[in-house]
Amino acid sequence: MTEIIPIGSDHAGYALKARLKQELTSLGYQPDDLGTDGPGSVDYPDFAHQVAKRVSEGADARGILLCGTGLGMAYAANRHSGVRAAVAWSAEIAGLAREHNDANILVLPARFVSEDEAVLILRRWLDTPFAGGRHLRRVAKIEWEPT
Ligand code: RB5
């Protein structure tokens, strides 16, 4: 079955999002674009929360977010239980975010990576499995309950 991947951006990530949607489609995925729908200025948390909610609730296994630095999107997405949103600025970081951290949301810093770099980052993140083992214990410790 075709995997649906929710994807969202603010205005800073809007153009790169279009390129990544093309790439996802050509790789056989079905991107579900939750906005923004144009280059006009918007607030990144509005889109981070929509994508993160889908992953947190288990409606989708993974998602993608883009903003200028990647940081604001990651801050907002990581407020959701079970979400591990990783800012990746190289394919190596994207691979390690999967292998060591089981990152279920990829966040792209759209103003700091080229289109070609972003495509390589996306492909590495999509194709790298979680390594498990000692990383499973560490990832489990990320979820924190106030006492
Ligand atoms: C928008 O100018 C910018 O602040 C936003 O895209 C992002 O970088 C925030 O973290």
The chain-level mean pLDDT equals 97
The distinct bound ligands, ions and cofactors come out as: D-ribose
Q: By CATH's scheme, which homologous superfamily applies? A: Sugar-phosphate isomerase, RpiB/LacA/LacB
Tell me the helix content.
Answer: 40-55%
Q: Terminal Cα separation, in Å?
A: 42 Å
Give the neighbour order of strands across the main sheet.
2-1-3-5-4
Main pleated sheet: 5 strands, parallel
Topology-level CATH name: Ribose 5-phosphate Isomerase B, Chain: A
Summarize the helix and strand pattern as letters. Answer: EHEHEHEHEHH
Runs in which pLDDT lies below 50 for 5 or more consecutive residues are none
Counted by DSSP, the helix tally is 6
Molecular structure report:
There is one protein chain. The chain is an alpha/beta fold and 147 residues long. The chain has a single domain, classed as Sugar-phosphate isomerase, RpiB/LacA/LacB (Ribose 5-phosphate Isomerase B, Chain: A, 3-Layer(aba) Sandwich), CATH 3.40.1400.10. The chain is built from 6 helices and 5 strands, in the order βαβαβαβαβαα. It has a 5-stranded parallel sheet with strand order 2-1-3-5-4, with helices on both faces. Strand 1, helix 1 and strand 2 form a beta-alpha-beta unit. Helix 1 (14-26) crosses helix 5 (115-127). It is globular, with a radius of gyration of 14 Å. It binds D-ribose. D-ribose binds next to helix 3.
